[in-house]
Amino acid sequence: MQLMPLTAQSLGADASDPAQNVDAGARYLRDLLLKYDGLLWHALAAYNAGPEALEKYHNQIPPYAKTILYIEKIDRDLKRSAGASNSRASFISGSEILFWTLSAACKACSTSRAQSHD
């Protein structure tokens, strides 16, 4: 997971510490899921582009190519990871999303750590 320095600071975390980063990122995603009533794509868009981007577009996903690609990749990976059909993916719970996000973040931390030791 990656947090902007001000977001990490607002969550009381040191963004350079992997454990604090993952913990704060999971809490931030949880907060966004609550803010957007469990709407995954909205929470992911806010995580990627910032909540103010959604506000600018009247709580709709902003038309930013990078954000749309980010959402589509996570949605695709989530469905693949869950072994879900499209209809099942619509009913994936917030805890399942959080679990998948943490798993992906831990995988990214491991990859990042391994690359830095090369």
Any chance you could write out the topology, listing elements then pairs?
Elements: H1 5-10, H2 18-35, H3 40-49, H4 51-56, H5 65-82, H6 86-89, H7 94-116
End-to-end Cα distance:
21 Å
Shape: globular
Mean pLDDT: 78
Largest sheet: none
The tally of strands reads 0
- Assembly of the depicted chains: single chain
Q: Pairing-aware structural class of the strands and helices?
A: mainly alpha
Q: What number of structural domains do the residues give?
A: 1
Share in β-strands:
under 5%
Q: What ranges have pLDDT less than 50 throughout 5 or more consecutive residues?
A: 87-91, 111-118
Provide the gyration radius in Å.
14 Å
Order of helices and strands: HHHHHHH
| Annotation field: number of helices | 7
Plain-language structure description:
The protein has seven helices and no strands. The protein is mainly alpha-helical. The protein is globular and about 30 Å long.
